[in-house]
């Protein structure tokens, strides 16, 4: 491996001159800078990032832990994280917890040995179910900055990026009501996740506050996402008057469109459907799915900004939560506004 000393010996200059030339220091002439860079390229010189990180006490690398890479929302968020990190001069190391508490814990242990400067993460379903967050609390005790997004916990004092999950379903239900829908059913595949609790509460509150419907909440909890189609079939048998379906994850909305099409429902004339997704995926259904759109790329970028600000600024300033706007996008599965 070629070192700065090797370059200096080859060029017949000091190590300090080589180091400054590679950094385009104004103390070094342009001719020398050009010559140093040409020889460095010819000899395939690469900076020793480990030595630099030890010297500077920073790696310029962010650790990212997401629960599910196949989930379009998390994939979009990861893309936003990578793009913004690159823009700010940081690399990322990504681990996938696969909704496992153990894998999440192992990933933190793997990366918290000095490999990264801080973490961006969304906690796994199993972690929230166990309500065991000691591995995150230990990070904060070690003064390792953490930014949580989407799935967060009030017991962790760190910066957070979220959407207003309560208002997302509250507004979606009011949209159904404005369409004249009288039997609005919520499908929940997210169990007791923090986001699910807020979305269910928004749904219930909207129905309770509405003066245009006397409907009691109807919530269909689905433990296994693979069973959504069967649950929708049963829903139609038990509630044949259903005319609004609100799916609070980013997969079951598509299944609902397919299942209700097969049951000969006219969408959106007979029933309106809203799911959680992003624009590029909504067109996978026919009719095109209307959605509560979470802007994952923006969430990822904001998370990076918050973490880098914490790393480079006042590390002791109070933690904060940033709320990224959602949108409700009308497409083919809801009635057009008059």
TrEMBL record:
Top-level lineage group: Bacteria
GO molecular function: DNA-binding transcription factor activity; transcription cis-regulatory region binding
Keyword Transferase applies: no
Keywords: DNA-binding, Transcription, Transcription regulation
Pfam family, one: LacI
Residue intervals of the HTH lacI-type domain: 2-56
Domain HTH cro/C1-type: 2-50
InterPro entries linked to this entry: Cro/C1-type_HTH, HTH_LacI, Lambda_DNA-bd_dom_sf, Peripla_BP/Lac1_sug-bd_dom, Peripla_BP_I
Listed SUPFAM superfamilies: lambda repressor-like DNA-binding domains, Periplasmic binding protein-like I
Protein's UniProt name: LacI family transcriptional regulator
Naturally occurring in which organism (per UniProt): Nonlabens tegetincola
């Amino acid at each position: 491996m070629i070192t700065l000393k090797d370059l200096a010996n080859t060029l017949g200059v000091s190590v300090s001159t080589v180091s400054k030339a590679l950094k385009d220091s104004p103390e070094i002439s342009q001719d020398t800078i050009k010559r140093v860079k040409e020889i460095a390229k010819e000899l395939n010189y690469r900076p020793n990032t480990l030595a630099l990180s030890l010297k500077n006490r920073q790696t310029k690398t962010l650790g990212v832990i997401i629960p599910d890479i196949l989930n379009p929302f998390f994939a979009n968020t990861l893309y936003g994280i990578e793009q913004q990190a690159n823009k700010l001069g940081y690399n990322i190391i990504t681990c996938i917890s696969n909704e496992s508490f153990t894998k999440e814990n192992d990933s933190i242990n793997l990366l918290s040995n000095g490999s990264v400067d801080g973490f961006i993460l969304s906690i796994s379903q199993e972690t929230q179910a166990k309500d065991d967050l000691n591995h995150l609390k230990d990070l904060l005790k070690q003064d390792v900055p953490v930014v949580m997004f989407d799935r967060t916990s009030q017991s962790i004092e760190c910066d957070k990026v979220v959407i207003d999950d309560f208002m997302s379903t509250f507004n979606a239900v009011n949209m159904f009501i404005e369409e004249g829908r009288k039997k609005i059913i919520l499908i929940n595949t997210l169990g007791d996740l923090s986001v699910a609790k807020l979305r269910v509460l928004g749904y219930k509150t909207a129905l309770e506050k509405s003066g245009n419907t006397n409907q009691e909440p109807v919530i269909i909890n689905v433990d296994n996402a693979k069973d959504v189609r069967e649950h929708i079939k049963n829903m139609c048998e038990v509630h044949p008057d259903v005319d609004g379906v609100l799916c609070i994850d980013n997969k079951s909305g598509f299944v609902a469109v397919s299942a209700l099409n097969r049951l000969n429902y006219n969408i959106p004339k007979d029933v309106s459907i809203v799911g959680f997704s992003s624009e590029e995926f909504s067109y996978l259904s026919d009719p095109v799915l209307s959605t509560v759109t979470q802007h994952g790329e923006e969430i990822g970028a904001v998370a990076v900004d918050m973490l880098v600000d914490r790393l480079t600024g006042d590390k002791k300033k109070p933690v904060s939560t940033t709320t990224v706007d959602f949108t409700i996008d009308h497409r083919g599965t809801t009635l057009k506004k008059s």
